[in-house]
Every structure is written in structure tokens, then in C-alpha cells.
Amino acid sequence: MLSLEGDVEVHALHAQGWTISAIARHLKLDRKTVRAYLNGDRVPGQRARSMPLLIEPFIDYCRIRLADDPHLWASTLFDEIVELGFTGSYPSLTTAIRKLALRPHCEPCHAAKGRDVAIIAHPPGEETQWDWVELPDPPTDWGVGRHAHLLVGAFAHSSRWRGVLAPAEDFAHLVEALDQVVLRLGGVTRRWRFDRMATVCSPESGRITPAFSGVAKHYGVGVDICPPRHGNRKGVVEKSNHAAAQRWWRTVADDCSVTAAQASLDRLSQRLDGRRRVRDGQRTTVGELAESEPLHPVPATAYPAELREPRKVTAQGLVSWRGNEYSVPPGLPGAVVTVIHRLGSETISITTESGAVVAAHCRAPDGAGRVVRDEGHVLALERSVLAAFDASKPCTHKTRRPLTAAALEESARLRGRPSSPDPAQKVVIDLSVYAATAANLSHAPHRDPLEQQ
What residue range is the signal peptide (predicted)? Predict the structure, then answer.
């Protein structure tokens, strides 16, 4: 590498008529180095690479991914190329994206303007922020419609967050998701903060609903409601929503199941506990900050809200729910039933549209792939199948059965031919008529001689 002074010396000697070999001998350099600086191939003060950059084999992949999705996070792209064998660092990836201009320009994003925000103090163990995230275009096999529903909870102090997928955003599913998130977070803070979701409070007044007051008492937390149109008041969970949507949801495959998607989200949120932080001049991580927060233990059982989810009965008398199948009595194939589960209990019940309970089972672990069948349902189904079975001799498929007269008549009509023969052309099959006709033909006819003249 030549300094600025050395580069000036090389150009000065060359301008005075020195050859490249003479300059190389005088400055004790390689001739190729001198030629590179004279041609402008090398920049003074910058060391030439002795080996290709680690990012070079992955440049085309990065360019394709960023062309397909210009807003793809660099951290998400880094996770992908690490799985492909990249051994470099995250800063080397971001440097390559900037220098090689791999990310396409987005004018609406560059035109957006910022705004001032206040800094809010969050003591350790004080607050958990909650929010629903509606994720568009979920895989078709999930059967949740146009949006998937993700409940995200984040510690305001350490910014540790966890998320749980839910079939809906009603009260019962909110309570179930809340319980699953606090279990993943490892404890309960002193207060919970929500925006004005209707399952928690009245959107107009901000007053907590009677139903959710029971949930707050069960978990021993105070509830704070954000002022209207103040999303920054729970900015920690909003940023967590952003990470979940950009680093995880954008990469969920079409054939990914709900269980696999939840597992991948858990892995991402746990990996993000390693984010670096500086507090009071000390280097730490999100995970270390979260572990030091004073938290209350999670209650042994969830708040007893009642889940209700409609399902359709299969021809085998089974109802699919949460990755398992449960039996119902025969006679209900194709019928829509409701699976009812009270959170904290070990059983589920299945009711018809009229509210009649037709089955009750012990709940199997979600995603276990079990078939839970009641012995009474099995026997009743066998009796129903046997009763409908015809024990007579089955049809013989090799019997000769020519076209019937009705079929022949219809075939003739379709072909445009008369369905029955013309009476004038009727074939004589009476033997007496035939004998009389033959007798008349056995005698020669007699003619009168006068007629011949």
C-alpha cells in the first residue's frame, strides 16, 4: 500500500520520464504495484485485498433477495446467508449493501419525515406492553382467513419480547395467548399496558371491561390504557411488532404449519435476547437485563376463559382441533360442531349447533397428532356401518345383458330412424298365406284365343 506521499512520488518520477522498472527499483516496489497506481487501479491509503471478500459468493443472492423485497431487513438477510455458509460478520454485510448499492431505492421511504418523541423511564419489572399484530396473507392450510393473529408482549425495561399465534382476537383467545406469552417471558411484571382494544376496555372511555378485570386480578397486575392515537406510548412492543413482521413473517413459507411457524418465532425471539445494550456505562444484553428484572411468578393455571371454535365432522366421525382428532357419535358427518375448552381444564366438549353436548374428551397436547376416540363412539359407529351394509348377493359384473327393446327404440329415435317397421313392408311369416300364394303360382295362366287376335 502506498501513502499519499508515495503516490505523488510515483507520478512525479513518471512525469519526469522514468520507466516503470526504474521507479520500482528506486522506491523498492513491485512493477505491478507501480503500474496499478499510475493507471488509477489502486487508491493511495487503501490496502489491496489479499484474498476475495467473504461476501463475494453471496452478492448475487443478496441482490436477488433485495430486488424481490427492497424493505427486507439486513439482519434477516444475514440470518439467511449464514445458513448458506457465510462466515463473515453482520457489519461486513451492511458495508457490502451500501458500497455495492444492492438495495433498490424507495422514494416513499426517503420522503418520509421523522418527528420528536419523548423518553419515558421504565423501571425494571414495572411494565409489559401488549399488542395484536394482524399478519396478512397467511398460508391457506391455516384456515384463519385473510389475516393471521399474533399477540406480542414485551418488557418495557429490557425489551425482551415473545409472541403467540392465535386463531382469533376475541376475549378467550386473548386470555389464552396472554398466558402463553407470560410463560415464555418467564414471569409477570407489576403492570400491563394495552391500546384501546375492545376485549380489554371500552374504546371510547378507556374503562376496563368487567371480564378483563377478572383476568387482571387473576395475574395480580395493574392495567394501563394508552391515550388515543398515542402509539409511541408503547413503543417497545411496536418495535417488537416490527421485528416479528419483518424478520419472521416475511419469510414464512406457504407450506409452513402453524406449529412450525410458532417454533420458528420462538427461536427468533430467543435469539434476539442476545442484542447488545449499554446501561450505566456497562455492556450487557437484552437477555441479561430481562433475567435481572423482578417478576412475579406465573399462576399455576390460566384464567378460566372459555374457548369456542367451530369445526366440521369428518366421514369417520372425527373432529380436528389443535393438531389432534376427537371422536363424536355416528350420524354427524359434514355437520358443523363447536369445540369448547375452558382454559386450565384438562377436558374439551363438543356441542352441536343447538347446544347439545355430544362428546367430551381429555385434551391431548397440541400438535401431538393423536386420535382420541371414545369406546362408545367406536361401537356405535360400527353398529351404524353394519346396519347399513347390504348382505345380499352382490351384483355379477360378467352377466350378458343385451340392449332391451326400450333401449333399441330410443336408439333408433336418436339416429333419426323409425322406431317400428312400416306395415306396408311387413314381412309375411304366416305359413298358410305362403302356401296359398305358392298354389296360385303353380298353374300357368289361361288366355282366350280371341283376345290374342
Answer: none
Question: Using an 8 Å Cβ cutoff, are 238 and 195 in contact?
Answer: no
Which residue has cell 300364394?
437
Q: How far is CA 106 from CA 61, 74, 78, 110, in A?
A: 20, 16, 21, 7
Nearest to 152 by CA among 144, 160, 164, 136: 164
- Cα of first residue to Cα of last residue in the chain, in angstroms, is 148
Write down the H helix ranges in 16-115: 20-27, 31-39, 59-68, 74-83, 90-99, 107-111
* pTM (global) more than 0.70: no
Q: pLDDT tens digit string along 378-425?
A: 888 878 777 776 666 666 677 788 888 888 888 888 887 665 555 555
Reduce the DSSP state of residue 265 to 3 states and report it.
helix
Q: What backbone torsions phi and psi does residue 256 show, to the nearest 5 degrees?
A: -80, 135
Task: Find the farthest-apart pair of alpha carbons in the chain and give their distance in angstroms, rounded.
Answer: 159
In 3D space, the residue among 96, 62, 95, 64 whose CA is nearest the CA of residue 79 turns out to be 62
Using alpha carbons, select from 323, 287, 299, 296 the residue that is nearest to residue 165.
323
The cell for 309 is 371454535
Compute CA distances 384 → 197, 316, 350, 388, whole Å. Answer: 49, 12, 20, 6
